[in-house]
Amino acid sequence: MEARASVIDKRLKDIKNIISVASGKGGVGKSLVASSLALNLKKKGYKVGLLDLDLYGPSSHIILGFSDFSFPKEDNGIIPPEVFGIKFMSIVIFTEDKPSAFRGVDITNIIIEILAITQWKKLDYLIIDMPPGIGDETLDVINLIKDSKFLVVTTPSKVAMAAVDKLLLMLKEQKLPILGVVENMKMKDGSFVKDRLKELDIKYLGAANYDSELEESIGKPNQIQNTNFMKDFEKIVQKIG
Ligand SMILES: Nc1ncnc2c1ncn2[C@@H]1O[C@H](COP(=O)(O)OP(=O)(O)O)[C@@H](O)[C@H]1O
Ligand SMILES: [Mg+2]
C-alpha cells in the first residue's frame, strides 16, 4: 500500500486541480455533473481528464458517448484514450463494457491499480466521478488521492440530503476542502437544501432544474452543451473556485 501510494502521487503530480464529484446518494446526477464539468472546462480551453471510479455503476462513458473499447496504448503506463478532447479512464476500458461482477473482488485494489497505471501527464483539471455513498471505496479514494477538492451533488429530496449530510460531515471532520454543493433535478421552489447548507457553513453553488429533454442528448456531448441543464450548470461552474 505504501509503495503504491507513492506511485499514485507520482502519477498525479502534474495535475494542477483535482475535483472529486461525490454524493452520499446514488442517482442524483454525479456522473452527469462530472461529465458536464469536464466538457465545460474543456470548452474553456483547459487540459482535462475524467476518471470514472464508480466501479459498480460506471456511466460517464455512456454520457460522453465513449465507445472505443480497444485496449489503450501503453507507454510506461496506460495512456488514457480521448473522448471529445477529454482524457478518459474508466473500468469499462478494461472490461470492454461487458458485465463485470466485482463481488468478492477487492475494489480498493482495482482503484489502486487504475490510479497507479494511468499516465495523465499534464492536466489543468482531473475530474473524478466518485463511487456513491460513504462506503469503503469512497474512503479509499479519499485517502489515496491527496489534494482533491470535493464537489457534492444532491437532489432536493430529504432522503438524498440526509445521506449527503453524512458525507459533508465526514469531509468536514477530515478537514477536506469542499467546493460546495449542487442541487440537481430541482422541480419546484424550496430552500431546505440551501438552509441546511447554511447551518453546516458549506457553500450552496446553485440549482440545476430537472430537464425533461436531457435524455435525448445523453451520449452526444455536442448536444449536452446546448441543453437547459448545461445552461443552469454553467452558472454553477462560475461559482466554483
Ligand atoms: N437535471 C437533470 N434533469 C434530467 N435528468 C437528469 C438530471 N440530472 C441527472 N439526470 C439523469 O438522471 C439519471 C442519473 O444521473 P447520474 O448522473 O447517472 O447519477 P449518479 O451518477 O449520481 O448515479 C441519468 O439518467 C441522468 O441523465
Ligand atoms: Mg454515476
Structure characterization notes:
The protein has helices spanning 2-12, 30-43, 60-64, 92-95, 107-117, 136-144, 158-173, 192-200, 221-224, 228-238; strands at residues 15-22, 48-52, 82-83, 86-90, 123-129, 148-154, 178-186, 204-209. By secondary structure, the chain is α/β, with parallel strands linked by helices. Strands 3-4-2-5-1-6-7-8 form an eight-stranded mixed beta sheet, with helices on both faces. Strand 3 (82-83) and strand 4 form a beta hairpin. Helix 2 (30-43) crosses helix 10 (228-238) and helix 5 (107-117) packs parallel to helix 6. The structure holds adenosine-5'-diphosphate and magnesium ion. Magnesium ion (MG) binds at residues 30-31, 54, 57, 59, 129. Residues 30-31, 54, 57, 59, 129 line the site of magnesium ion (MG).
Features:
241 residues, alpha/beta, eight-stranded mixed beta sheet, 8 strands, 20% strand, binds adenosine-5'-diphosphate, binds magnesium ion
| Order of SSEs | HEHEHEEHHEHEHEHEHH
Mean pLDDT across all amino acids? 93
Class by alpha and beta content: alpha/beta
* C-alpha end-to-end distance: 32 Å
The number of helices is: 10
Bound molecules: adenosine-5'-diphosphate, magnesium ion
Helix content: 25-40%
Indicate the radius of gyration in whole angstroms.
Answer: 17 Å
Largest beta sheet: what is the strand line-up?
Answer: 3-4-2-5-1-6-7-8
Strand content: 15-25%
- Number of separate strands: 8
Task: Report the principal-axis shape.
Answer: globular
Low-confidence stretches: none
The biggest beta sheet is recorded as:
8 strands, mixed
